[in-house]
Amino acid sequence: MDIKFESTVPKKEDFYQLYETTGWNGRVGIYSKEDLYNAIGNSWYLIAAYNEDKFIGFGRVISDGVYQTFITDVIIHPDFQRKGIGSEIVKLLMKRCKSKGLQWIQLSAAKGKKKFYEKLGFEERDSDAPGMQIRI
């Protein structure tokens, strides 16, 4: 398998199709292709993975470039999961953060993905400071 990693925004339709494999769009509201494309275009840094010409994986960083840094939208097409692609994407995102002096990287792991991120060195936040959210 020949996987190529690029720090370029994927095509709008390609990203939408990959995003739809997660089921996230139905849980948090309906985001259009344009909404999602605008969102990823505003990333601080991103990695897109391709097998030959097929877009198969993605991850991005949202950051102020100083101290608030979040890895998000790590998505691997179901046909390509468990092949090290997600790990490589996260490692490349972390490498970029480190090269820019960012020292604290946060993320929210999808259900069932905690062990994946632990293998990459992430630790669960203390139970007395797990974070909060609101959907409006």
Pick out its properties.
136 residues, alpha+beta, Aminopeptidase, 5-stranded mixed β-sheet, 5 strands, globular
Task: Summarize the topology.
Layout: E1 3-6, H1 12-20, H2 24-28, H3 33-41, E2 45-51, E3 54-63, E4 69-76, H4 85-99, E5 106-107, H5 114-119
Parallel strand pairs: 4-5
Antiparallel strand pairs: 1-2, 2-3, 3-4
- The tally of helices reads 5
Q: Please, what is the CATH homologous superfamily? A: Gcn5-related N-acetyltransferase (GNAT)
Q: Which outline best applies? A: globular
CATH topology value: Aminopeptidase
Radius of gyration: 15 Å
Overall tally of structural domains = 1
| CATH class category | Alpha Beta
Descriptive overview:
This protein has 136 residues and is an alpha+beta fold. Helix 1 packs across helix 3. Strands 1-2-3-4-5 form a 5-stranded mixed sheet. The protein has 5 helices and 5 strands, in the order E-H-H-H-E-E-E-H-E-H. The protein has helices spanning 12-20, 24-28, 33-41, 85-99, 114-119; strands at residues 3-6, 45-51, 54-63, 69-76, 106-107. 32% of the residues lie in helices and 23% in strands. The longest helix is centred in the C-terminal third of the chain and has 15 residues, at 85-99. The radius of gyration is 15 Å and the shape is globular. The model has no long low-confidence stretch (mean pLDDT 91).
Summarize the structure.
The protein is 32% helix and 23% strand. With 136 residues, the chain is an alpha+beta fold.
